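[READ THE FOLD]
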Amino acid sequence: MNSTTTMPDAAPAPIRPPRLLGLYLLLIIVAAIETFEGLSDAPTLFGDMSKIPGPGLGGAIIKAYIASHPVLALAALIFATVGRLRFAIMALAALALMNWLNYMPSVVLHGLDFGGLSAFQTPVQIIAFPLMAACAIALAARGERLGLATMLASIPTLFNVAAVIAFGISVFLYGF
């Protein structure tokens, strides 16, 4: 065949969406929520440090959490946006572990609070969320069951969003 002969136009290959589009979108949404929360708390580091409770190791842990929150959340957002699903899951799960570590100075000083609403919230945040985050990191590191790992890494953020919404509804209905 010479170079002037043209081949019949072949139909263009259909554009297929990425296999894991739903997971990417969930991670982007969750990471955006965490980024907003982390960036809204970051000015605390540049203000009056007396607002951060606890001297010594407890205060250092809380400061480390406030400093790492926007970094980990932005990393998760960037990884999810560029298609690095495993790294986005690990960043969100690391953020959940840092959140757990943030609660530890209070738990050490005051113990576990199981009264009222805390009877449900405390075991979830102190026991369940760090276990879920550790499992999400393990699954993402191995590249296995990424859907499950995404859900395990996202549940702490979704739980907190649901708690804020429930609080807002209760204030709307019953007043403050």
